[in-house]
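Recall that a protein's primary structure is simply its ordered list of amino acids. Everything else, from secondary elements to tertiary packing, is in principle encoded there. The following example makes that idea concrete.
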Amino acid sequence: MSEETLVRSLAPKLALLRAVAAEGNLTRAANALDIPQPTATRWLAALSAELGTPVVLRDGRGIRLTRAGACLADAAGRALAVLAAGLRQAAEEVDPEHGQVVLAFLHTLGELRVPGLLRAFRKEHPRVRFTLVQGAHEELLEHVRTGRADLAFTAPVPAGPEFAGITLDEQQLVVTVPVEHRLAGRARVRMAELSGEAFVGMKMGYGLRRITDELAEAAGFTPALAFEGEEVDTLRGLVAAGLGVALLPAAEPTLTPGTVEIPLRPKATRRIGLVWAAGRPLAPAVLAFREFVGSGG
């Protein structure tokens, strides 16, 4: 069978395979696509026959993908994301002002930066709709990678050919300590001086956690995390309660009571950027928002 013929034969079944990967259960996958379960079973059997290897295996009461099935499901996800983006682009060519933007962003940017940008953009494009998704740095990149999000505000800005992006801002990072801390009166502090301190920090997968770990490693120690969280304001509250120190962006607009911020020496920053999938077409409304953000809003 030629590759072209195989692709035409596989196409109707790709969404099912992707749903199986997401659900881990054939009944739920079939329901998600609104097809009868016997049809879903026949499609998976036909898909296995066409590929010459099983794509699923029984796993207790559910099913799981084989290695071949997982490879195809991953490719199906990327292909369906490109197709969905193309369909949106085609629909919005009729009226770009009625488009939709799926925007992912860090929790740390949700209080001030993102609402202000959306408010300014909507003054010029009042009928463009937004779907907002928050998460950790790695989660945001995965949303963009799989097409669940069009754009992501995140930090640090990823390198490599998979993503494209623009740097929008550079935030200074400071050591946040309780007011009674031994370093509270210092004008500057070196990362090495924090060796042995109890830290409060973001969970794994967050950009701030990676930056903290990298700076500590360069200073010759591994930070001991007493508490892990997902919100910067929560971490500042933990610092104020005397439960540890934290490496965080400088507070905006005012300090959290009970805390002191000390700049690092040498200076430490994080770059905030807008990221999208390289090589994937963007719908007109998404392009309009990207250009708006890139021009300074």
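The mean pLDDT is 86. The longest helix spans residues 67-94.
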